[in-house]
Amino acid sequence: MTQTEFMTQLANRLIDIPLEERRAALDFYNNYFQDARDEGRSDAEVIASLESPAQIAARIRAEFAFAQARRDPANPKNTGRVLAAVFGILSLPITVPAAIVVLALGIALTAVLLAFVLTAVGIVLACVGTAFLVGLNAAVLLVTGAGTGAMFPILLGMALMALGLTVLFATVFWLLLKLLARVIAWAGRGIYRLFAGNRKGEAK
Amino acid sequence: MAIKIMAGVGAALFLVGILLTCATMFFADITWREVADVLEESPVHMDIHTREGGFHGSIGLFRSDDGPFKICLGNIEITIDR
Question: Is A153 near chain B, with CB under 8 Å?
Fold first, then answer.
């Protein structure tokens, strides 16, 4: 493989990160090749001393994901990037037991996130449904005149309570989701450092 | 800031609701049992089922001359007996 082929492969695998980040990474490896050539090393030697373009790209994407998650942990896109980085460890040269552990931890983090989101959506929808149905009952009572006159304000109050709980739950779940995203970013970074840190393809 | 506003609005709605309900129940001398009875006897029923043809993403109001009034939210069907 020549330097051009190496760089082309690397560039193709970094297509999903922003242009600025991609350019910085490619410049770094171009300079690395240039420095090595100045020291009298051939391209083949340099390429042999590095990881494959796929592995280097996986590391760059992971570092980008962790940096983005640190900057904006509430962004769901960044949480997705962190989880992708954790699963991306599987594309790196690690032992089978380590791969099993990484896979299990990745699935566990994803499951926790999904369970939380589904629970939150379920509770909020239940509150919205209650508010809507009790409100509808109050409206029907008002129209039909059924029940005592005091029943309408009671049902209206219950509908308002359910509506208030909907907004409160939505707020609390949003805050908890941000906290969970931070925890996932922190755990993902820890898993990555533990299983994939300090490799020859990284900056020297 | 938006979070604080949301929390404030939620808490205010909840407090107004609980005050309205409890105060009315107290002054009108109505028990929870009576409220539950009114809800049970209400003509509004919620029926969650798969409407004909599988999943429906539509929202609609249906009213026939001899049948109940129906509100459909996707596959959720709320029926108001007449």
Answer: yes
Q: How many domains does chain B have?
A: 2
Q: Rounded CA gap, A178 and A40, in Å?
A: 51
Domain that holds residue B74: 43-82
Instruction: Assess whether B35 and B21 both reside in one domain.
Output: yes
Contact between residue A199 and residue A89 where contact means Cβ atoms under 8 Å apart: no
Which among A151, A153, A164 has CB closest to B38?
Answer: A151
The complex's ipTM works out to: 0.71
Domain contains A17: no
Number of inter-chain CB pairs under 8 A, A vs B: 103
Q: Do A148 and B20 touch (CB under 8 A)?
A: no
A40 inside domain: no
Give the integer Cα–Cα distance in Å for B27 and B76.
37
Q: What is the pLDDT of residues A7-38, one digit of tens each?
A: 899 888 888 888 888 888 899 998 988 888 88
Tokens at residue A199, please?
A: 């490799």
Q: Which A positions 156-175 lie with beta carbon below 8 A of chain B?
A: 156-171, 174-175
